[in-house]
Amino acid sequence: xxxxxxxxxxxxxxxxxxxxxxxxxxxxxxxxxxxxxxxxxxxxxxxxxxxxxxxxxxxxxxxxxxxxxxxxxxxxxxxxxxxxxxxxxxxxxxxxxxxxxxxxxxxxxxxxxxxxx
Length: 117
Description:
This protein has 117 residues and is α+β, with helices and mostly antiparallel strands.
């Protein structure tokens, strides 16, 4: 689309797009005390910037800002176009409610009484 533009302008546009994507995306990978911003995420994995230090393979936590989304076992997949892609070997979604260790036998009302006329 930008083939008619000079090479330095195309590189500048690409760098600006990458910066804007990094700023707008709040997803991050936490491996111990280290934090790595996620560029893209899909069902089977995610991508981080290849020019930055890489998260180690193994168990990592994935956050959306301050909200903990999941804990995953990751493996490095490929280095494609300045992005290092990782695939999930296992991903456990973090729930928002605590786990119950009992069966909930309470039942709701079977119906409502009509309002007096």
